[in-house]
């Protein structure tokens, strides 16, 4: 078991952690979730048949672990607010109250802007942006991870960039207004 | 509409690629210990092995059956006894029954006094239910255990900008049978081929079974297609003179619902057995069939895995009002809010979306939403927008401008710019 963990850790840990962090936007939560990914993977490694690549399989497990966490947070929030009803995609927003990690804070202004701008994207769009550009997965790998068609990845990617561009533009306009 | 990768987009992509990698500060050993603890916890959550649940249920059922059906055992016992003994046994059983009834009554009273203490069976079921909940479901490849992630995927439309140099597309009809009726779903394939479009059309119609989507194949499987002097000729390979009405309509609707995305202003010529014309079921003899763009509206059909757009014509939804006049675009969009539930055809535009007005400006149409519009979720917006764009396309518009006070949710569709109508619906890779 330790050997398997060692191998997975050396090969994928930083990528999985980074992916989970950008998804949930909280380092402590990303730490918990990456552990959960290992637990699920180590429990079911013998069932992995190699139909998809190990890398996309792990990312897809991380994605589901992240989504489950976000849903749980939203359920808690909704329960607390006394709101009932099915969870829709609009309610899949990430609670974003944790402090920014050092890597972001110490980055250039554009990094913080981009990090903030990503909040404007829908959860699906964010998944595509993170996997495609931050994690450098190919279209095919992203499609495999998300369980989508390649064309859906392309369309979502196109829309995500567009949305991000508008969000960044709005941020700059707001800053300009504040500057005046 | 801007090109998908103009300079500004490229800059954003580069910035995204340079986002810092956030690292886990913990050591490998620290993480391993936490993982080990998690694995240990999971292993020591007492849970029944999968076979235990059905076995326990079966045992409980048998016990309950024996408890409440004493007559069954009596019958079985009595059938093996001589006549005289049977009577005495019956008397004894009657006495026993009344005694049992009394006991049951006493038990009921005692149970009602101890309502908070569930019976043995009642205790077992919630326990196993709880344990099942705690049990992480087995991880299977390629899907992963999760609670309620949406799995229905919309087969989005194909846009011109998605077609790269050397790429082409072909749209074929698939026949869907639902609740005693049938309708046509157009399916679009993007491909790279030097083949003539009409020959590609023939190939996909003949070869694509539709099986993976759970549909019958194309109703045009037995037709050979060719282009002659700029005309499209369809040669029937088998006699279709006496086919059922449903089958002949599937052929005609299938041609209409697919060829119109490939060729504009088209008239198909039919041949059979080396002669011009074909005897086609209830349509009688047909020599030519014009492909018109008189469809009015698009609707939604979903299987367990996919969502498709279906045209009103393909689903046999009326395109004319009581006076026999074709609906206007505004009326069509309004009608797209109601489906045909009896055959599982759903509305493409949710009820909460209110269209204030529709304005014609040459090859562009302006669709203005009311500010009170309630926007649906992202997936529904995508389906709705595609359906509206196709509806506009059938009215001859090349682009649509969406307007309104409250359209910020639709920004990603480039709603400040005119949106070009897509080239074909329901794209599969």
TrEMBL record, chain A:
It comes from the Bacteria. Pfam families: Sigma70_r2, Sigma70_r4. This is RNA polymerase sigma factor. Keywords: DNA-binding, Sigma factor, Transcription, Transcription regulation. It comes from Aliibacillus thermotolerans. The keyword Transcription applies. Residues 170-180 have a biased composition (Basic and acidic residues). Gene3D superfamilies: 1.10.1740.10, Winged helix-like DNA-binding domain superfamily/Winged helix DNA-binding domain. Residues 159-169 have a biased composition (Basic residues). PANTHER family: RNA POLYMERASE ECF-TYPE SIGMA FACTO, RNA POLYMERASE SIGMA FACTOR SIGV. Residues 8-75, 122-166 form the RNA polymerase sigma-70 region domain. Residues 159-180 are annotated as: Disordered.
UniProtKB/TrEMBL annotation, chain B:
The chain crosses the membrane at residues 53-76. Residues 101-130 have a biased composition (Acidic residues). It comes from the Bacteria. Keywords: Membrane, Transmembrane, Transmembrane helix. Residues 131-145 have a biased composition (Low complexity). Residues 83-100 have a biased composition (Basic and acidic residues). Residues 80-145 are annotated as: Disordered. This is RsiX protein. The lineage of its organism: Bacteria, Bacillati, Bacillota, Bacilli, Bacillales.
């Amino acid at each position: 078991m330790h050997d398997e963990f060692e191998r997975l850790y050396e090969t994928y840990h930083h990528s999985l952690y980074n992916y989970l962090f950008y998804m949930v936007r909280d380092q402590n939560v990303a730490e918990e979730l990456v552990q959960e990914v290992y637990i699920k993977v180590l429990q079911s490694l013998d069932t992995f048949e190699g139909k998809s690549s190990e890398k996309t399989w792990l990312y897809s497990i991380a994605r589901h672990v992240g989504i489950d966490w976000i849903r749980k947070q939203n359920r808690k929030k909704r329960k607390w607010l006394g709101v009932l009803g099915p969870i829709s995609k609009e309610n899949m927003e990430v609670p974003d109250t944790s402090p920014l990690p050092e890597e972001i804070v110490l980055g250039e202004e554009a990094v913080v802007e981009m990090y903030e701008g990503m909040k404007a994207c829908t959860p699906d769009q964010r998944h595509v942006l993170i996997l495609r550009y931050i994690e450098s997965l190919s279209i095919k790998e992203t499609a495999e991870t998300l369980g989508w068609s390649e064309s859906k990845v392309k369309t979502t990617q196109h829309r995500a960039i567009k949305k991000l561009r508008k969000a960044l533009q709005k941020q700059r306009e707001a800053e300009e207004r504040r500057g005046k | 509409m801007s090109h998908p990768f103009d300079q500004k987009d490229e800059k954003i992509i580069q910035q995204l690629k340079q986002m810092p990698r956030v690292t886990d500060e913990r050591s490998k050993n620290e993480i391993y210990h936490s993982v080990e603890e998690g694995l240990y916890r999971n292993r020591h959550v007492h849970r029944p092995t999968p076979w235990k649940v059905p076995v326990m249920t079966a045992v409980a059922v048998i016990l309950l059956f024996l408890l409440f059906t004493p007559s069954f055992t009596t019958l079985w016992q009595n059938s093996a006894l001589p006549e005289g003994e049977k009577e005495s046994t019956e008397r004894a059983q009657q006495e026993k029954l009344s005694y049992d009834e009394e006991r049951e009554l006493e038990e009921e009273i005692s149970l009602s006094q101890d309502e908070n203490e569930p019976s043995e069976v009642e205790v077992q079921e919630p326990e196993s239910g709880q344990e099942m909940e705690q049990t992480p479901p087995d991880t299977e490849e390629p899907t992963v255990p999760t609670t309620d992630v949406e799995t229905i995927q919309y087969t989005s439309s194909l846009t011109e900008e998605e077609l790269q140099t050397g790429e082409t597309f072909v749209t074929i009809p698939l026949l869907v049978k639902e609740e005693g009726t049938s309708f046509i779903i157009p399916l679009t394939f993007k491909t790279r081929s030097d083949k003539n479009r009409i020959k590609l059309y023939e190939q996909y119609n003949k070869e694509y079974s539709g099986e993976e989507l759970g549909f019958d194949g194309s109703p045009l499987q037995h037709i050979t297609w060719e282009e002659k002097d700029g005309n499209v000729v369809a040669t029937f390979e088998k006699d279709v003179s006496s086919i059922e009405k449903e089958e002949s309509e599937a052929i005609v609707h299938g041609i209409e619902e697919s060829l119109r995305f490939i060729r504009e202003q088209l008239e198909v010529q039919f041949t059979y057995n080396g002669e011009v014309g074909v005897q086609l079921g209830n349509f009688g003899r047909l020599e030519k069939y014009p492909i018109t763009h008189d469809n009015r509206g698009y609707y939604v059909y979903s299987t367990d895995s996919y969502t498709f757009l279906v045209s009103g014509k393909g689903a046999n939804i009326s395109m004319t009002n009581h006076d026999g006049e074709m609906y206007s675009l505004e009326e069509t969009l309004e009608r797209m809010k109601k489906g045909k539930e009896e055959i599982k055809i759903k509305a493409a535009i949710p009820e909460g979306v209110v269209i204030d007005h529709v304005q014609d400006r040459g090859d562009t149409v302006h669709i203005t939403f009311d500010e009170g519009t309630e926007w649906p979720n992202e997936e529904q917006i995508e389906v709705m927008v595609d359906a509206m764009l196709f509806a506009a396309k059938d009215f001859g518009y090349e682009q649509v401008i969406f307007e309104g006070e409250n359209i910020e949710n639709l920004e990603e569709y480039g709603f400040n710019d005119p949106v070009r109508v897509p080239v074909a619906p329901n794209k599969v890779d």
